[in-house]
Amino acid sequence: MKLFGDWPYWFRMDPFFKVRGVFALILGVSAAALTPGCGKGPAEAPAPADVQVVSVEQRDVPLVRDWVGSMDGFVNAQIRAQVSGYLTKQDYKEGTAVKQGDVLFEIDPRPFAASLAQAEGGLAQAQAQLGKAELDVARYTPLARDKAVSQEELDDAVQGRLAALAQVASAKAAAEQARLLLSFTRVVSPVDGIAGLIRAQIGDLVGPGSGVLTTVSKVDPIKAYFAIGEQDYLGFREANPGSSSIPAGTEFELILSDGSLYPRKGKFFAIDSQVDANTGTLRAVAVFPNPDGLLRPGQYAKVRATLKVEKGALVVPARALSELQGAYQLATVDAANHTHILTVKAGAHLGPLVVVESGLHPGDRVVADGVQKIKPDALVNPIPFAAEGK
Questions:
Q1: Tens digits of per-residue pLDDT, 72-117?
Q2: Handedness of CA 10, 13, 15, 21 (dihedral sign)
Q3: How far is Cα 385 from Cα 67, in angstroms, rounded to an integer?
Q4: Are strands 85-90 and 103-107 parallel, antiparallel or unpaired?
Q5: What is the pLDDT, as a whole number, of residue 320?
Q6: 172 occurs within a structural domain
Q7: Which of 107, 199, 296, 383 has the fewest beta carbons under 10 Å from its own?
Q8: Of 111, 302, 92, 279, which Cα lies nearest the Cα of 187?
Q9: Do 285 and 329 reside in the same domain of the chain?
Q10: At what angle are helices 110-145 and 151-183 packed, to 10 degrees?
Q11: Of 299, 357, 352, 289, which is closest to residue 328 (Cα–Cα)?
Q12: Which domain does 169 fall in, by range?
């Protein structure tokens, strides 16, 4: 910008006019700065931020608990050899269903058959002795009455008969014992169930001290063992004041390892008599029908049950809560659309929802996007939020 370039030379060289020119320039710049539309005006207030809100809902909430459980047979029969001998035969297919009384193994029966024959021979001999003693008593009785033999001889005959009777009883017991031992050479299943893998080999010398041959597990129904905490146990009792333990009618569900829900519900069976001092839990048992054999002993699954139904509980989306050192906070929006940060007491989690036990009232508007995004006492534009879990 030329201030003096086009003026006459005498004007440019005159000091008086120079001072006047500079002064005029300063006034012009100041006026331009004060003229509306030149430069930036005062900053406008930002628009209220959009936030999604959901009204606190009041509903009856079932308090559901999950526990890690392990399956076990209703009966687990350990099959052992009751007599010593060589294992000669396996009569079942491993991992298949067997019936009570089915033969699982055979042990060499020959030594026991010989023992039975010997015991039966001793029984026959004792019975023969008894026959002779009875004849003696029958013969001596009238002779002693006629004084043909002495009373002492009759007494000896009577005592001989009693001794023979005792010998017969002893021989019968020996024969029965031998017969029983012979029957033990055929190892049978004591229950209906699934027979496990064999733990011995054909030709092994087995006996009462040689260990388990296999196991037969009764799996229909099947037991699920799980450990419940003291608080859950008290929750059951609170919901059923007249019960001495978990109510017998309590239904249980199984969530299998692949996340699927077992289609049949179970019933409470038993609970331990005392609390484990190390873990603070009680061992409980639920029984599930298992007609198709899907569940097997040793299988792990989640056991689920409803402790009680909490009437009129307040629920909000779990994403609305922020946890810091065990304390939960959320943001609410008042009638004037200003935000407030509240500390609340959170209860049971129900999937995407959580029960708030204190700090809220029915109908309160809660910011569903999380308290960490909200400043206290900020003006917001609330937008309805489609709550999850409905």
A1: 999 999 999 999 999 999 999 999 999 999 999 999 999 999 999 9
A2: positive
A3: 33
A4: antiparallel
A5: 86
A6: yes
A7: 383
A8: 92
A9: no
A10: 160
A11: 357
A12: 110-183
Q: What is the distance between the alpha carbons of residues 242 and 232, in angstroms, rounded to a whole number? A: 16
Q: Which amino acid is at 78?
A: Q
SS (H, E, C) the chain: CCCCCCCCHHHHHCHHHHHHHHHHHHHHHHHHHHCCCCCCCCCCCCCCEEEEEEECEEEEEEEEEEEEEEEEEEEEEEEECCCCEEEEEECCCCCCEECCCCEEEEECCHHHHHHHHHHHHHHHHHHHHHHHHHHHHHHHHHHHHCCCCCHHHHHHHHHHHHHHHHHHHHHHHHHHHHHHHHHCCEEECCCCEEECCCCCCCCCEECCCCCEEEEEEEEEEEEEEEEEEHHHHHHHHHHCCCCCCCCCCCEEEEECCCCCECCCCEEEEEECCCCECCCCEEEEEEEECCCCCCCCCCCEEEEEEEEEEEEEEEEEEHHHCEEECCEEEEEEECCCCEEEEEEEEEEEEECCEEEEEECCCCCCEEECCCHHHCCCCCEEEEEECCCCCC
Question: Can you tell me the distance from the alpha carbon of 330 to that of 345, in angstroms, rounded to the nearest whole number?
Answer: 10
What letter represents residue 67's amino acid? W
Is 64 a residue whose pLDDT tops 50? yes
**CATH code (residue 271):** 2.40.30.170
Q: Which amino acid is at 102?
A: D
In a domain? residue 115: yes
The structure's pTM equals 0.65
Q: Are 94 and 198 in contact (CB under 8 A)?
A: yes
Q: How far apart are CA 159 and CA 154, in angstroms?
A: 9
